[in-house]
Amino acid sequence: MDGMSLLNVRLHTGRSHQIRVQLAAVGTPLYGDQKYGQQVNKPGQQIALWANTLEFPHPTTKELMKFESIPPSVHPWTIWERISDRTVTV
Q1: Rounded Cα distance, 37 and 49, in Å
Q2: Is-contact 66 54, C-beta < 8 A?
Q3: What is the pLDDT of residues 4-48, one digit of tens each?
Q4: CA dist., res. 5 & res. 73, Å (int)
């Protein structure tokens, strides 16, 4: 799949650029990341970072809020459409 992997990342903090910095530090920058992956990405590529699900407690009611979104049907997201739903959800 073009030398790419699909990851499921669970954040424990809301620190800016946490995913991008950590992946670049181990030599696997995000597709399209011009700041932390400029040596392997081309100018103009859209960064491939998508929040499929966001979940957090409401600040006043404490009710669990859950929001889901599917990525667009464009490259690079379409290369994982062939993977079964039991393996990965995009």
Answers
A1: 13
A2: yes
A3: 888 888 777 777 688 888 889 998 888 888 888 888 888 888 888
A4: 17
